[in-house]
Design brief:
0% strand; Ankyrin_rpt-contain_sf; Dendritic_Spine_Reg/Scaffold; elongated; repeat; mainly alpha; ANK repeat
Length: 365
């Protein structure tokens, strides 16, 4: 079977601009007013007041564009943020990476600071160089207060970042922030939106084993058979005839990543237990997940989630109609793994990995 890495395509990218900026704060501090920066770092409100009273320029920026307000937003000190804003600090100031104080407060999940910056005129739709908005950042870090504040101030709930075309809902889904999803949906988040690679919020959540998110999306009308578009499957290789047979969906993603309770939930909601991607059904995938190291892959077995065992999952889906004699019908790209071969059944793959327990169960069923 293809390596687990194929099913773990990068979903959640780090906001490089934010982390570069925060990692360089100490080096930049000396270029700004040292006393003011020290006071902000130490959370010393009285010293900040004293610096302002001395006439310190609160809008002065270091060589990389970092302002005192960036520092205060990063520290999450609402009182100091308010002092700086009242003294004339610009809530829309951006450093050389395009990062504004609002992005930093969203990164830290500080809803109170986010609200104060927005009230002072911060742009709820400002983007970093990669196209990440504060809403995406807040959704990724899981701050419901920050998400609500941003949405209340006009943040575009369906904006997509420029690197992979992912939306805030996709961030929340992939990170398992089920408590955020209903709010985003109530503000019009598109449950069917797809990234540039064809991934939806449902697929991200299924791959990561976020069962609460999947349940929330299903209750909101999400498609239990949500699958990667044909164009993405075509990108993975194979002949034109083989490409038409692909169907990597939420159920297969959950099974391939050992999220058996989630996969079982999808079955209970009507998922097709015989769906195949590149000719591999969930039963074929179990043989690899159980013995990843033996199955011709250099990747470790997935961590999985839940309390359902792989053998319990096999019983579950066979009882739901999974074909124990299904055969691999699609030849994978060369060099993936020696266990990918046309005609192989789940039993044969279990035999090739020496999985006697799975062989006995398949024979019994």
């Amino acid at each position: 079977m293809r390596s687990h890495a194929v099913y773990r395509v990068v979903a959640i990218f780090c906001s490089v601009a934010i982390h570069v900026m925060t990692s360089g704060l100490v080096a930049s501090a000396a270029e700004a007013d040292a006393d003011l920066i020290d006071a902000i770092q130490n959370g010393d409100r009285s010293e900040v007041e004293a610096a302002i009273a001395r006439g310190t320029d609160v809008t002065a920026a270091s060589n990389d564009g970092t302002t005192p307000l960036h520092w205060a937003a990063h520290a999450g000190n609402t009182a100091i943020v308010e002092l700086l804003l009242d003294a004339g600090a610009d809530p829309k100031s951006a450093n050389r990476y395009g990062v504004q104080p609002l992005a930093l407060s969203s990164e830290n999940g500080n809803g109170e600071v986010v609200s104060r910056l927005l009230e002072a005129g911060a742009d709820a739709n400002a983007m970093t160089a990669e196209g990440e908005t504060a809403l995406m950042t807040a959704a990724r870090t899981g701050s419901l207060d920050a998400v609500r504040a941003l949405l209340d101030h006009g943040a575009d709930v369906n904006a997509a970042e420029t690197w992979r075309g992912q939306t805030a809902l996709m961030w929340a889904a992939a990170e398992g922030h089920a408590h955020i999803v209903p709010t985003m949906l109530s503000y019009g988040a598109d449950i069917t939106a797809r990234s540039s690679a064809g991934w939806s919020a449902m697929l991200f959540a299924a791959r990561e084993g976020e069962i609460d998110v999947v349940q929330t999306l299903l209750e909101a009308g999400g498609d239990v058979e949500d699958a990667l578009p044909v164009v993405e499957e075509m990108r993975r290789g194979g002949s034109s005839a083989e490409r038409s047979a692909t169907g990597l969906n939420a159920f297969l993603l959950a099974a391939a990543n050992a999220h058996y309770e989630l996969a079982a939930l999808l079955v209970d909601r009507g998922a097709d237990v015989n769906v195949a991607s590149r000719g591999w059904t969930a039963l074929h995938q179990v043989s690899w997940v159980r013995k990843a190291g033996v199955a011709g892959s250099n990747n470790p077995a997935p961590k999985g989630s839940g309390n359902m065992t792989s053998l319990e999952f096999v019983r579950k889906i066979v009882a739901a109609g999974a074909d124990v004699n299904a055969r691999v019908t699609v030849r994978p790209p060369a060099g993936i793994t020696r266990l990918n071969f046309i005609g192989g059944t789940p039993f044969l793959l279990a035999a090739r990995t020496g999985d006697a327990a799975l062989m006995r169960l398949l024979a019994e069923l």
